[in-house]
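Example 4.3 (complexes with small molecules)
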Amino acid sequence: MIIVSPSILSADFANLERDIKRVEDAGANWLHIDVMDGHFVPNITIGVPVVKSIKKVTKLPLDVHLMIENPEKYVESFAKAGADIITFHFEASKDINGLIRLIKSFGVKAGMSIKPKTPADVVFPYLNALDLLLVMTVEPGFGGQKFMQDCAEKIPAIKEKAKDNLIIQVDGGINAQTARICTQYGANSLVAGNYIYGSNDIQKAIKSLV
Ligand code: DX5
Ligand code: ZN
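Answer. The structure with D-xylitol-5-phosphate bound is encoded below.
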């Protein structure tokens, strides 16, 4: 099964409930929420209060992608706000095992992400402890960027070392064509913002990814 996680970064924030319902009704599996702090990435987006409000209007699991420094400081708040999956960045973390344990202590799935320039082998020691590994296929920070195929090429090496139930997610520049490339490499979760929200038939767009 392929898990499709539409990124609300491309939604209309003034009509967020409507735009969440749109993807929920169209068959999305998760909802991807991009949290940016203006330090780890140059952009600032969504924080804890927004996640808390989103939790009240959707049944979709909340897939929270933390593009922030010091992620350990915020895990508890995002978990209590209703995150079902919390993904932090390898590049932003000091004590990765501690962070994974902290996330799981709240009953939340633990994910780790790598930026385009980070090699695959750095994640190998953590694959057994993780529930999800996110391979960024653009530089994190903004929606609507071009897919980088060489990033997706890291997936087979990760898949080979991973346990069977590790979710391998890709994020950035995903559309019907690039999704195919990623799933062929072994990805089983697709984040897409611009492709889904920019389409005039959201259901068709989601179906075209899987
Ligand atoms: C980028 C974010 C992505 C972004 C993807 O930093 O992590 O989740 O919303 O957007 P698209 O699908 O438009 O590339
Ligand atoms: Zn993301």
